[in-house]
Amino acid sequence: MLEEILDIRNVQRAFKRVTANKGANGIDGMQTDELRDYLNGNWQTLRSDILTGNYRPSAVRKVEIPKPGGGKRMLGIPTVIDRLIQQSISQWLSPKYESDFSANSYGFRPNRNAHQAVLKAQEYLNEGYLWIVELDLDKFFDRVNHDKLMSLLSARIKDKRTLQLIRLYLNSGIMENGVVTPRREGTPQGSPLSPLLSNVILGELDAKLEERGHRFVRYADDCSIYVRSEKSAHRVIAGISTYLEDCLKLKVNREKSKVSRPGNSILLGFSFYGSGKGWKIRIASKSLRSIKEKIRQQTKRSKPCPLTERISNLKEIIHGWVNYFSIAEAKSHMVKLDEMMRTRLRIVLWKQWKSITGRARQLMKMGVVKSRAYQLANTRKGYCRTAHSPTLLTTLDKKYFLSLGIEGFANYYYWKTTHQTKLF
Fold it and tell me: How far is the CA of 213 from the CAs of 131, 227, 236, 244, in angstroms?
């Protein structure tokens, strides 16, 4: 098995994936664009060391990023060389495990995505399963039990050298402030192996839920179970929490795990609402707060930034966000987000125009008569009130920003929902 993993064709595929993803450097400082030269001179030695068991992975570099709901998420950034080897292992093993995984598992699998998970949840709701068990695993990637995981892997992988190499990656330390700390549990996010390993261990949860006849969707460690009654929901959350902790050695966050109703549930940033035609998908309030904060960050008037750069950043945010939430009924939200964005851009422009003369000159260029232009330029009102003045609303309007190349949330959402291929 290990020879096949290190076959040059498999490694070349991994190389393309790692260099395409780019990503930050590990503790050795090597960047992805330096990997080719390194491999040209060292691949045979590296391969030999791995096959003979002499290779030792480097520690991962610890990085903490803020979580949307508060707190921090720990990432472990392996070196570029270790990312290449892990990617080679992952892409060779993944097809071997694919047939073992549940149809209700949607994360980190080919031809599966978050949209399918949300649409499946909508299907359960419309079948009458209106009580939802939302499981929250406490720091899942940091708490995976190595012995349990290796036991599951050894049932499928018979090559002891491959198992040893995976164990070495699990045990490689974490470097923070120049100090390496040994790791005895967890498979930090940031590793190409982590998605596969998470599906291997949580595949046991899927099997248990299917054995009990439950309807559920799981995307990585985000799992929701759908039942018909409140009593069943409380029984399920108690039983599955015990199973996760006793059998899979994972920790359930009992404060965040809950029994909810469709309108209060959150699945991958989405929620649901009832209508005369059944349950519909909507954007969760938390997701809306998050995108508003992103707009604020990009349109801070105190942030020195050319308007073209702001618009380019906003376009990237708009496209990514609308692409993800295009399956939700969200036209009114998109319109409101556009209004907010244009208001903040008006404030940015008003500040950039600076002086009374400069503001009046810009307004007159847009067709505002001189008297009216100077009247507004002399205003003592604050930025926000000025941005809502009739003059700016009719000059720096939707058409004006469209001419600058920013089509907005609503326009892109309309195009996306009327032109996208129906995959589901």
Answer: 15, 10, 11, 17
Please give the C-alpha separations between residue 319 and each of 198, 292, 312, 345, in angstroms, as whole numbers. 29, 15, 11, 18
Which of 229, 226, 230, 204 shows the shortest CA–CA distance to 217? 226
Alpha-carbon span 173 to 150, nearest angstrom: 18
Task: Yes or no: say if 327 and 413 are a contact pair by the CB < 8 Å rule.
Answer: no
* Phi/psi of residue 355, nearest 5 degrees: -80, 165
Average pLDDT over the chain reads: 91
- Burial classification of residue 8, based on how many CB atoms lie within 10 Å of its CB (0-12 exposed, 13-18 middle, 19 or more buried): exposed
Contact of 57 with 168, CB cutoff 8 Å? yes
Mark out the alpha helices in 8-79 (DSSP H runs).
8-21, 35-52
**CA distances (Å), origin 310, targets 216, 292, 307, 395, 400:** 41, 15, 5, 19, 15
Span 268-285, pLDDT tens digits: 999 999 998 999 999 999
In the numeric block, which tokens belong to residue 176? 């923070």
Burial of 245 by CB count in 10 Å (0-12 exposed, 13-18 middle, 19+ buried)? middle
What is the gyration radius of the CA atoms in the chain, in angstroms? 26
Per-residue pLDDT, 422: 47
Please give the structure tokens belonging to residue 38.
Answer: 């390194």
Burial class (CB in 10 A: 0-12, 13-18, 19+), 287: buried
Q: 3-class DSSP state for residue 220?
A: coil
Tell me the pairing of strands 174-176 and 60-66.
parallel
- Among 221, 217, 215, which residue's Cα sits nearest to residue 244? 221
Q: Which DSSP state fits 112?
A: -
Interatomic CA distance for residues 289 and 282, integer angstroms: 14
CA separation, residue 184 to residues 147, 156, 167, 244, 302 (Å)? 9, 23, 10, 19, 46
| C-alpha separations of 151 from 170, 284, 388, 413 in Å | 13, 38, 63, 47
Residue 75: strand, helix, or coil:
strand
The pLDDT tens digits for 350-407 are: 999 999 999 999 999 999 999 999 999 999 999 999 999 999 999 999 999 999 999 8
Q: Pick the closest to residue 249 from 167, 143, 172, 166 (CA basis).
A: 143
